[in-house]
Every structure is written in structure tokens, then in C-alpha cells.
Amino acid sequence: MGTRSEPYEAPAIQTFATELTEWRLQAGLTQTALAETLGYTPQWISQIESAKSIPSKEFAENLDTYFTTNGLFKRLWKRIIDTRHQAILPPGFTAYQEREAEADQLRAFELTLIHGLLQSENYIRTVVGHGQDPDTAEQLVAERLKRQEVLTRKGALDAWFTLDEAALRREIADPEIMCEQLAHLLTLGERPNISIDIVPLSAKYYPGLTGSFNLLSILDAPDVVYGEIAGQGMLITEPRTVASFAVRYNKLRGDALRVEESRTLINRIMEEYG
User: Fold this and answer.
1) What structural domains does the chain harbor?
2) pTM of the model
3) N or C end: fewer C-beta atoms under 10 angstroms in the chain?
4) How far lies 56's CA from each of 13, 14, 80, 133, 169, in Å?
5) pLDDT, tens digit, for every residue of 218-266?
6) SUPFAM superfamilies annotated for this entry (predicted)?
7) 103: helix, coil or strand?
């Protein structure tokens, strides 16, 4: 977890930033003055206070010593480390996930990977574990499996998933895991609240090639759209824009195979992996 252009949304990082700013202001110090006193750059202090950088243990200890806080900043730093798996979530995703848990309907399109709600445990581990330490990876796996309960719980949401065939053929793990993942798709597709269809590679150009997105419908609340670009998330609430995504989803489904034809394709790809 390093410096980023947008603030981290993780509460622990936000709290550290807020506390540092408050203690600095109470001491009557500018960011430059504090930086010079502690031996850091003003840019570093600014990044921490804007929640765009993760403080180090040494920095936290230096703050405790200087402000005589009885270990406050070190405790806040430890909280950041203990919840570091939350800090790597894309901006906007936390707000989206809260809405997803309350949603009645989901329409989702995925271009390059199996949708997160449809991923098997080993597939999840391959995706979220990339570049992460083992503890963080396992926390992320557990959270995604918990998130998937929106599809299987009592009163589960109704979900329509459209996947590009390329997502099924992208061999991000060994063939055994890919076969397991495709079998998982077939099993989920048997549930009455889940529809899974595939846009075949033969479709050539179609509206979905512009990118993946999720469209949520919540009873007595406006629909919202969530999408990601290069790891940056965006939650869209503007009604006209959200409506345009609904139109886009309807259009791209016109290029998808029927559900039973999609199941046949999934089985065929499984055999190729097998």
C-alpha cells in the first residue's frame, strides 16, 4: 500500500489522517514546520493528512514521542495494518458494496474476468492474492465469499450476469481451477434467481467491449451503476447516466447466447481445459 492520487477510503487510514491534522493544528504548526521538526518532507505530511499515503510504524512512533500521546498514533497505525485488506479496495467500492447488500436486482456485465459474485474460492484466491501477503489475501477471500451470500441467502437478489467468452477462456490459473470455476458457474446458473449468459467471441464488435459494469436496483431507491478502470472504482448515481447503462446492458444482451446455449458453451470450454 503506497501513495495514490485519490484518498484511501479505509476508516483506519482516514482516522489517522484526521488525528494527525488535529494534533498539528492544536500545536500551532504548519505542515512544513512539523516536517522539519520530525525530519520528513512537507509533501509526506500532506499525503498522510489527505489519506493518500500509509504512515509507517516509525512515523507513528515519532508522532507519539513529539506530541506525547501515550501511543495513540502507534495504535492507529496498528489498526491500519490489521485492516489493510480494506485499504486496497478501489475508491467507490465500499459504497457500492453497501448498496449491493440491500439490492433487489443486479444486472452485471464482465468483459475480462469471471464476475466476483460468481467466482469459486480458488479462483478468488488467484485474483485477490496477486501481489498480496498471505494474511491479506485470505482476508480478501473470506470477504468475497461472504459478499456472495447476496445470491444464496433467504430473500436473495435476482441477478442477471452476462459474460464475454474471453472471461471464461482467460486462463488465470491452472486448468484444474479453471474447470472448477466453470463448474461453479453451471451450478449457480441452476438457481432460480440467477441467470448467466455468454457473449461468444463470434459476436465481433458489440456494446460490451467498452467495459464491465454493475447495475443495481433497490426498492424505493434510485438505481446505481458501478464500474472500474485500471483499479479505480466509480459509483454513478446521476439518473440519466444510470439509465444509459440500462440501455447498454439490454443492447449487449442481444449479442449473448440464450441461457441453455451459454451452458453448452461453458461445458465445451470445460472439456477443453480438462
Assistant:
1) 11-86 (1.10.260.40), 90-273 (3.30.870)
2) 0.71
3) C
4) 12, 15, 10, 17, 41
5) 988 999 999 987 667 789 999 999 999 999 999 999 999 999 999 999 9
6) lambda repressor-like DNA-binding domains
7) coil
